[in-house]
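Go through this chain for my students:
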Amino acid sequence: MVRSWMGAAVAAGLLASPLVAAEGMWMPQQIPGLAAELKAAGMELDPERLADLLGDPLGAIVSLGGCSASFVSPEGLIVTNHHCVAGSLQFNSTPERDLLLEGFLAATRDDEIPAAPGSYVYVTTAIRDVTAEVLGDGGAGLSDADFARQVERRERELVDNCEKDDDVRCRVANFFEGTLFLEITQMQIRDVRMVYSPAEGVGNFGGEIDNWMWPRHTGDFSFLRAWVGPDGSPADPSPDNVPYRPRHWLKVATEGVEEGDLVWIAGYPGRTFRYRTAAEVAAAHEFSMPELVRWADEMIAILEAENRRGKEVELANYGRIRGLANVMKKYEGQLLAMRDGKVEAQRQAREASLAFGDAAESPLAVLDRIQARRRQTERRDFILDWLGRSSPMFGQAFSLWRLAEERPLPDLEREEGYRERDRSRFLQGIARAQRSIEPASDRATLRFALLEATRLPEGQRIAPLDARLAATGREGAEAQVDALLDGLYAGTRIGDREARVAMANESLEQLAARGDSMLDLVRDLAPLAAARRAEAKADAGAMLRHRPAYLRAIAAAAGREIYPDANSTLRFTWGVVTGYEPRDAVRYTPRTTLAGVVAKTGEDPFHTPQALLDAAAAPLTAYVDPQLGSVPVGFLSTTDITGGNSGSATLNGRGELVGLAFDGNWEGVVSDFLFLDPIVRTIHVDAVYMRWVMDAVDRAHHLLREMGLPVHATD
């Protein structure tokens, strides 16, 4: 059955041979084709075994919906990254008990606390090829927009049929740019509890200064537990629930890695753009990426200034600042790597090698025309997209208005996120958003966004916003924006959670009748938003028609098997532990140590808990690597990852967990667009360091024993 999934891709000419393993986020069913390379590198497991998503060890790999994770005990214990649970730590924190700063350890299972609303564990249970059911006759006789609607409707019908069992969540995933569609069924465990997270001085040591950088000394790991009903089925949180008993879980290695060792990663990478056109890459390089960096930088400065008002404000803004800082630094790294033009040059050379009959009507020409049209309004569209990111309150108002717009439609015609299957998640989003709503900070960052809108050129103006500003009767952009904001924040109840829950049950007429100032602004912008959605629908249909042919041409020119771009489905990547040379006369070795943590310790964000410093003064010899003369902390590998891989299990040739992937190196982050073999590296936290912190620092001995690991410190 596994091999049959590849039928459509084989027929399309995407899976030739031989494989090239220097890069690649491979679908598990492609792994047997890597057998020779894997065996030569030190893989002891049968590659056929690794092609079984439901077997051991891939059956232990789970998704958290944005991060990856894995079961590490028969009692539902899950390991992932510290930054993957930061939202839950923030949600459960108060100024009096800051779990982000102090960390959290449940002494018993009764002490485990609920993760943030909307936290799920997804366990894959079935996969089915539905390409023919989705594409049918390719939309013959339909417009591009209608073809996109037809595909969406068929996907929704498949999902609804798949989800007749309330315990599962299904999706239809698109591979190879619309060539292959797989229906993926996952058990969704909805009682997820926090078990253990080290203090911020371990889990986020180095903060944004060290983010994306090597050498790295961050203990980026945490533990959750999946709970289910007494019958073993997913259930809402309840004191009657019991720990989930997975069919498979990973064994944590008791030995570390060495330079040259094979390691491999199984996880759920989010999105890559390696098959985007030269024109699409140019648009990102020339506008969207530098603009995002500029906006993020400005908003971080605004929020950090707001944080001076107190601890409660700081906790509310924590997730916003960290998210903005993370994406800003990543894009800065990508822009630095793109400055010599090598990414665009690679795309141009690739496109020059493609053979199309009628160049003017080739798939590439169609894609380029779409991109050229998008660039005509890119500044306006960027601001419209970022209004919600600049203001969580505006984002909530927009979502509530959209829900009311979609509700009268038949369920199969509603946009994703607003269907009946999404209702519980929508309400959980309302609850989760409350922790990040801080009206004064919200106003300050929305002010920045609105001032940016006043600077738009003719032809890209946002007319409803211009009318609102003019109606204030003030002179000058700043005075108009401030007057508009005065009215917005004085006349809205969007900041009130209970009010938003009530709004989630109201019609457009009822929302409009409220006279809520934030909702009224969304109402004014709604026609423009609808026009943009209609245009995007037509583009999606055109892409479905032309991207497959474009990708087939790429595969034919490459003369080898290609892997699909990442799409938040389970992938396999392998490599070796090794360093790199980022520039002339500089070489980074691949491992960092506890001695390096102590040497870096100082002012925030390099503050280290005293308990760790005390334990580091005489580290337990069982964890000291003889070659390093210290406890290993992190290591580098040549594996191929992106966002979404955070928390991914890193395993050795025997299939034992030796670490967790948590970052990429700054010089290599351009790999979302182009994999540069000599310098792209994954940064992992070493399982030896995880065990040492749990044993010697935080005394999480009951968790070590649960995983079948030795305890060397005294209880």
